Amino acid sequence: MPQTHGHTAPSPLPTFAERLASQGSMLYGGDYNPEQWPEEVRKEDMRLFKEAGINEVTLNVFSWAQLQPSENEYDFSKLDRIARTVSDAGMSIVMATSTGALPAWMSLRHPDVNRVDEKGRKMRHRERHNACINSPTFRTYSAALAGKLAERYGGLPNLVAWHVGNEYGGMCWCDTCAVKFREWLRARYGTIESVNEAWNSAFWSHTYHSFDEIFPPNELGNMTGWSGKAILGGFSLDYQRFYGECVLESYNEEKAAIRRFDRVNPVTTNMMGTYPTYDYFRWRAGLDGNGDDCGVDVVSWDSYPRPDTPAASVAMCHELMRGVGGGGPWMLMEQTPSRQNWMPFNAQKRPGQMRQLSWQAVAHGADTVQFFQLRQNRAGCEKFHGALIGSDGTDRTRAFRECAALGSELKRVSGRILGSRMTPARVALVFDWQSRWAIDLSAGPTISMDYVAEVQRWYAELHRRNIPVDIVGPYDEYDSYDVLLAPCLYMMRASLVTRLRRFVDHGGRLLLTALSALTDEHDSLYQGEIPVPLRDLAGVWVEETDALDPDTSVVPLRFADATGATDVADDVHEGYTGTTPVIADSANDAAGPHGRVLFDVLEADEGTEVLATYGSEYYVGTPAFTFRPSTGNGGVFYAATFPDDAAMPMFVDRLLDGTNIVGLTNGPLTGVVDSRSIVPDATVPSDLRVVDLEVTRRVAANGTMFTFVINPVNVPVTVDLPASLTGRDLLTDADVTSGERTVEPFGVLIVESSTATAGQTA
Asked: What is the CATH code for 670-754?
C-alpha cells in the first residue's frame, strides 16, 4: 500500500458525531486480528462481515512485534495487505497503534521497559500492559511507531479513528519510576519540607530529609500489614496520581505523533468503566499548559457485565463514561457477542441479550456498537472468548445470526439516532476516583466499605424511577443542576469546596453521606467539627462514627411523620436537638428501613430538619438523615448512614420533594411477569414476579426524541405504557399506543416522537 499523508493545515477538528454522520449509520464492528490467518481466510471473513452488517474493523491492536522486528527495522507489508483487503470490502477502519504489548526483543535488549511489580519483582516479557510507562525506551519507540503508522495510513479515506494502546492498566514500581516520582514531587511541592508537611510524615518517624530517600510505595515500603493499607495516605495517593499522569503523558505523546500527520480523525483509547487505577476524568479532551491537544477526542470503553450484573449498574458505567467525555456521544469499543473467558463461570449471553445490551448502550449515548472480537483466536489465553465468527468459520452459529440481525437493525435505523444527545438532566451524581483511592488506602473505619457499590446504590434508585442523571467529576461545574448527589465524597480540595458552596448558595440541593468531607487532598483530616469545610451549610456535627458488620448488624430507621404529627418516639435520645418531630415506624423492624455499614452520631444545629432517626444502638433517637435549608429551594441533606434497599426510596423521596424533578415515566415503569411464562434459566430468579423496565431518552438537534424502553430480563413482561411513551417504534415502524403491552424477553422499543407529542411526565 503506498504511503498516504493526512491533512496538515490547521483546522478545527470535527466532532465525533460529525465524523460518523457521513457514514450514514453507526459504526458496527470491532477488534479484528487477521494476522493469525492466511489471506484466503481474510477474504472469506470479509464476505461474512458483509453478511452480518459489519461496517468497521479495528486493526493492529497487538501487532508491534510484527511491525517492528528490531530497533531500526519496520515492516508494514502485512498490515498494508490487511488494510487493503478491508478497504476494498468497503469497511471503515479504526487503526490502533499496537503499543499495548511489547515485542520480546525490546524486553530482552532493553530491560528498562519491563515493569517491577508491587512485590518488587522485575518482570520479563509477559502479558499485555507489560511496559513501564516511564521507560525512556518505551516512550521513544511507542511514539515513533504511532507516528510512522499515522504517516502511512493517516490519509486513508475510510479511516475513522485512532486507537492508542489498549485498556491501559496496572502500575510499575521500578527505579526509573522512583527517579521520575522524585522529579514529580519536586515540581509539585518544591521542597522536602513541604512534602513532609503534606504527608504528615512525622507519623511513625517517617520524616524524609532528602528526595533521594523516597521510593515507590509498594509492599516493601509504604504499606502496612493491615490488609495492605497505606502507612502515609498522602504518600500512596501522590504515587497513584503521579503514575496516572505518566500514563496520560505517554498517551499524549502518541497522540502528538499522530497529529503531525493526521489532524482530522479523532484519537481515543479504550477505557474500562469504574476501573480503579486511573482517574479517567483527567483524560477529557482539552489543551495542556502549552496549548497542545491532549486527552481523548471521544470516550470509548469496553463493557463486560457479569451475568448477574443489574441493569442499573451497566447503565451507571455508561453514564460515567459519557460524563468523562463531557456528556457527548461515545464509543462502545468492546463487548462480547456471546461470552467472556476470564470469569470464574463464563455463561453465554441468552438469546436476545446481546441485542438488548447493545441497544442499552445506544440508549445511554453510544454512537458505535463494537465487539471483541470479530473472529475467534486460534490459540492463546483468549481462545475461548466469544466472537462473531467462531472456530467453525461459518455463519450458522447463534452468535453470528444474532449479530447479523442487529447489524440489519443498525443499518436501517441508527442513522436517525446518530449525534443525538441524552435528554438534559437536572440531577447529577459525583464520582471521584481519588476519594475512592483514599478510602481504599485507609486503615478503617470498616473493611465493608465499597465506594463504587455505595455510589451505585444511589444511582440505582434514580435509574429505577427513570430520572435522567449526569455523572460528573470533582473538577466539573455544577451550576446547571438542581440536585447534586455526592455520596462518600471523602476527600475535598479547596477548589471543590468552593464550587459546592456556590452550588448550595445559589439554591442547589446537595447530598452528603457518611464518609464525606473528611480530608484534604493529602488525606489529612480537616481539624474541627465534621464535616469541617461544609459544617455551616450541613447544619450538623459528626461527633463520632460507629461501624458494624453489615452481614450481621443493621440499625432500624424512624422517619419523620409526613403529616407533621407532633408525637415523638419514646426512644428519643435526651441529647436530641433536632427541630422536626419524629415518630416511631409502625412497620416491623426486620422489614422496615435500615441503615447499614457506617453510623455517624450527629448533633443537629437549630434550624436543621431531622428527617429520620436511629431506632436502636446507643445512638437511638439521634439524627440519621437531616436537611439544612439554604437559599431558595436549596440546602444540604446529610445521610449519616448508608440506607438499605427499603430505606433508599424514602431517602430519595425526601431529596426530591418539592423540586418538581420527575422521571420520563411517573415513577418506575413496573411490569408484571406471568409466572407460567418463566422458563427455568440460570439468569432468572424462580420467584421473579415484577420487573422495572428501563426508560431513557436521546434528543436530536431538531427536537426529535428517541425514547428507549428496555426489558432487562429473559422473561416477557406485561406493562401499562403511559401516554408519554407513545409514538412510532423505530425498530418495527409500528405505532406505540398507551395501555397494556407485553414486552418480549430482553425486548427493546425505540419510540420516535416530537417535543409536541411527548415529554417528561409531571
From this structure: 2.60.40.1180
